[in-house]
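#dry-run=false #mode=assembly
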Amino acid sequence: GESVGLHLPTLSVQEGDNSIINCAYSNSASDYFIWYKQESGKGPQFIIDIRSNMDKRQGQRVTVLLNKTVKHLSLQIAATQPGDSAVYFCAVPGWASGGSYIPTFGRGTSLIVHP
Amino acid sequence: GAVVSQHPSWVICKSGTSVKIECRSLDFQATTMFWYRQFPKQSLMLMATSNEGSKATYEQGVEKDKFLINHASLTLSTLTVTSAHPEDSSFYICSVQPGLPSYEQYFGPGTRLTVT
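#status=ok
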């Protein structure tokens, strides 16, 4: 099955700094990638996605970069705020036993923002 | 996007008892819903696909007789943990996937189950 991993389990940054969260994937045929944010005690929340025909996509204060050559993607958060403290997951769709094409989650990186 | 609720948000039960968790899709009619479990500091693991009006489809390694899923309407799926044991203590999250062109999923707030 799909293997999605994250390089660092925890990332600590100062408020106002930029944060970069990395993710590696194993299936070179993967064509869609999603980043989720999960705050403590809550369900994951969609942040941004990117398709394999793109190298970069920008949202509000977030940018996702995709390097298909090395099967790596990153999530960049500009001017990190305390409210950004959460666990961030990259996810790649795969086939569930029921036939649905749904995200497979990586291990997650815990982002801690110090005021 | 879709709005998903879960009830209860947390529950404590004694070993050997059963507990039911509800997942509601508030603004989207979901023929399919998904149940995940998440252990502390770990990722989400898909348990099963809940199908409206038919049997759920379980992922490999998930005991279907222990985790009973019922999807009686387009807005409600329930997960019943039967004969709960302390190792069933976990965070249970449901989701819906409105469909193409996006594979985006919308997740409920989760239910924290503690079995004593």
